[in-house]
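>> received
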Amino acid sequence: MRLNELSPPPGSRRARKRVGRGEGSGYGKTSGRGQKGAKARSGTKAYTTYEGGQMPLQRRLPRLKGEARGRHTPAHPKVYDPVNVGELAAVEGDTIGLDELRAAGLIRKKADTLVKILGDGEIDRPVTVRAHAFSRAAREKIEAAGGRAEVL
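>> returned
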């Protein structure tokens, strides 16, 4: 066997499609491009998000918050887990922090949870409450009972 006798196995190599070489080839006249339109022209390519004139998806969806709407709308506003003063009465101990609230099932177990104490309900014992935010009414009720409201 010599190099000039080598050839690929039959059927492993495919001949190049020669378009525009007569009707009998099946790729004559319009060369497999159909009739008119942008796809029939040379050198044109529709961008990937083109939907044929239909309103594109990125224009159908509402605009995002943040920079897209203007600088005054935060893209990711702080989300607090609310806990009412009345719910604090069920928590044992003189100091109530995030761990105690989690153990009582009043806030989510996620570590980055922000907690705000709200003023609904009453508390009748002095406690030190540690949270990320307090409403004015909650702070007044905690301090009226002889406790302290500490912001984390």
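>> Helices lie at 57-60, 85-88, 98-103, 136-144.
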